[in-house]
Amino acid sequence: MLCGLRRDTKSSIDEGPYSKGSKETTDQSHSSQGRSLSEEYRGVTTVELMKREGSSLGLTISGGSDKDGKPRVSNLRAGGLAARSDQLNVGDYIKSVNGINLSKLRHDEIISLLKNIGERVVLEVEYELPPFVQNPSGIMTKNIEVCLHKEGNSFGFVMRGGFHEDRRRSRPLVVTGVRPGGPADREGTLKAGDRVLNIDGMPLNRERHAEALTMLMQSGQEALFLIEYDVSVMGE
């Protein structure tokens, strides 16, 4: 593995159409607590978590049939199981838990369900797809190879998007969050808004989100990522 070699050096002052300086995930413009995402902005993924008996998932859920809006992740506790999975963002909607649909449940029923769930927790998650990348004038893209070392099944970043038969819903695989203190954060190159082009030389442009996640989990303890990112081009 040629993890010691890099194609480029990423400048700390790079700017692009995303907010790259923040490690926190913010809500996108097309979603709100009270209404559903339109079809073309909606992505769905399955998140499986394994927790020890008596431990918590480390996430806070707001909403419910008696509250304003669908059940959604309002907080991920730093160091908690959900945060360390690198599969969830604040603002994600939780559609079901272990096959139980949450749409008709009150807030207190959802909390009780999560507290009393078994060790294996399967969440059906709806999220807002990353926006289409249309680089404005003054912005160019560059590629860089980044070597990361896995912790558990994760490299410390959340990735969303992926191929879809419906062109309106196809997106690059976009980094939407970098977990503070995780492998990607410690390495220092990867930022929210960067696009993951391949893993260990395997291209991802035709991979669905679930398939790309599987590739991440099945990769070795050390993996080489080809990343596309944006740079400001200063005018004369």
From TrEMBL:
PROSITE patterns assigned to the protein according to its UniProt record, in alphabetical order: PDZ
**UniProt feature, compositional bias: Basic and acidic residues:** 1-13
Q: Which Gene3D superfamilies match?
A: 2.30.42.10
Q: What is its main location?
A: cytoplasm
CDD domains given in the database record: PDZ1_GRIP1-2-like, PDZ2_GRIP1-2-like
Q: Where is the PDZ domain?
A: 46-129, 145-231
Full protein name? Glutamate receptor-interacting protein 2
Give the source species: Characodon lateralis
